[in-house]
Amino acid sequence: MDTQKEALRRIISTLANKNEELQTFLETVDTTLTGLQEESWKVTSELEAELERLSSALEEKGVELRGAIKEEKQRKEAELQKQLSEGKFALLSCEELLEFANQTLNITNEEEFLKAAKQIKERVTMAPAFRLTTRPAVSENMSQFTVDFSVERAGLQRLHFLPVPRAPEIDASSCVVRDNAVTVAWQPSSEVIVDGDGGGGGGSGGGGRIERYELEYRKTNKDSSLRAAGEACWEKIHDIRETQVTVTGLKFDSRFVVVRVRARNKAAAGEFSEPVAIETIAYNFGFDAATAHPELKVQGDTVTWEPQGVKGHDPRLKGKENKSSSRSATPSPNKTAGSRAGRDRFAGESYTVLGDQEMSGGCHYWELRPLADWKSFSVGVAYRASLGRFDQLGKNAGSWCLHASQWLQSSLAAKHNNRAKALDWPLPQRIGIYCNYDNGDLSFIDVDRLRLLHSFKTKFSQTLVPAFTVWCGGISVTTGLQVPSFMGKFLSTNRSLSNLSQ
Questions:
Q1: Is the full-model pTM beyond 0.70?
Q2: For residue 255, which of 235, 275, 280 has the smallest C-alpha distance?
């Protein structure tokens, strides 16, 4: 019966996975359907707007051409009307002179006849008819305005949708993951998708030329079913002019970053390429609040020291009471107000909290920044089992740390097994912690100045956890970081500082 139950559990698990896959599929189809409707409305609106602009352009050109014909017609009409008016006046003058000449022929008196003949001769010399050109000033020809739009008409008949670029192909071998940045490279497709009979419309005018690319990426812990995620979770990068792009400032808090890219020409965007999963392995952890000292407040990636009402805990409140004390600035256990909240919670003078992810092999890196008004903190690694509830970091053989303090005086020291080595270096504001478990390396870096502060060399025998001590003030940590490339400079050279005796 147990065998049958186990087989049934496997079937149930398979059905549950298939059910989840089908639900995701249905959500994707529904999203695609909605997107199709929106996209169809969008391109139809754009088509109507483009046709309207084309019609307006034709109408404007028609008005321009009609205006040119009308202007020439009016100019020629004015010339001809002027000639017509002058000709009528000359004709009337000529008729009057002709009648006067005929009447003169009937004069019998010689003196009157000679006088009239002289007047006729003078009037003929000055007559408008003899000064007027008898050829029209302009012709009726308007052939310069003949049009033939057969080529343009054929062009209009060839109008079609812009050719759509084919999906590029991401070159996985050329993609680079470095310093929490992902460089994605791809090969463009030289072909375009053309609907219809292959007209392609704007292709000859450069409309099919790829102008830019768009890349989308998202984080995931699965490298399968890459198309199943909803569109809303994709981060977008637009207006890429080259065939590669670098996405910077990433936190690698997932196993993979999935990327896809598409090409865009003058107005049309093609389909996305096949998504590619790029592995982004980094060390991620949070603070284990169950281990936090009662006076440490864990909130996200920060830890702050919040004393529980005891005057002696805050040096700013102790005043003169503490001036004669020869002890360190750390309060005494008998002044601790916190009650025991659990077996794993630190107490007393420890002011410690541990990370929640163990290290049992490989290389790990994270960074720490002190918050404003900090006074003292320690950062390092420890064997969880080696720390007692009242233990401070660096005070036993199972913990290694860098201790920084600016209470009373500034100091920086590397601590392990109750021994401390003072470090002559300004207090850093950004500390990188590098742990190579297999090689037994633990290094602390001043990231802003790219300085190796100290490096422990040992042989780890148990699983490690990040460990922190905070007193007066607070710290924040940044995880999800790759081992940065600048670590190679420190790992490939001899240690400039002596290691503590292990």
A1: no
A2: 280
